[in-house]
Design goal:
4-stranded antiparallel sheet, binds zinc ion, Alpha-Beta Plaits, alpha+beta, about 90 residues
Length: about 90
C-alpha cells in the first residue's frame, strides 16, 4: 500500500534548527529504523529550511503494509497520513 504522510510545523519550531531535532529525524529515517518498522520510504520533500517564514511542510511518500506501520514510524509527531494511488493510474482511465 502507498501512503503520503504530511507533516507541518511553524518555521520557528523547525527541528532542523537544533542538533536534537536533526538527530531525531536522522534516527527516525535511518535505514535501520525504516527496516525495523517495515517502511519503504519512496521519496520525501520538505520546504524547510528554504521557507523562511510561515509554515514548513514535509511530504513523505511511503510504501508500507498498513497505515498502522506508518503511524508507528512517526510516533508522537503531528502528521496526516493518507492512502494514495499513483496519479498516472487514475488519469489513464479518464
Ligand atoms: Zn522546518
Amino acid at each position: 500500500m502507498l501512503f503520503t504522510a504530511v507533516s507541518k510545523h511553524d518555521s520557528k519550531q523547525c527541528p532542523l534548527k537544533t542538533g536534537e531535532g536533526v538527530k531525531m529525524l536522522k534516527d527516525m529515517f535511518s535505514e535501520e529504523n525504516l527496516k525495523k518498522n517495515n517502511i519503504n520510504l519512496s521519496d520525501a520533500f520538505i520546504s524547510c529550511p528554504k521557507e523562511k517564514h510561515s509554515t514548513h511542510e514535509g511530504v513523505f511518500i511511503i510504501n508500507a503494509e498498513s497505515e498502522a506501520d506508518v503511524k508507528k514510524l512517526f510516533g508522537t509527531m503531528d502528521v496526516e497520513i493518507k492512502e494514495v494511488v499513483p496519479f498516472k493510474d487514475i488519469v489513464k482511465n479518464f
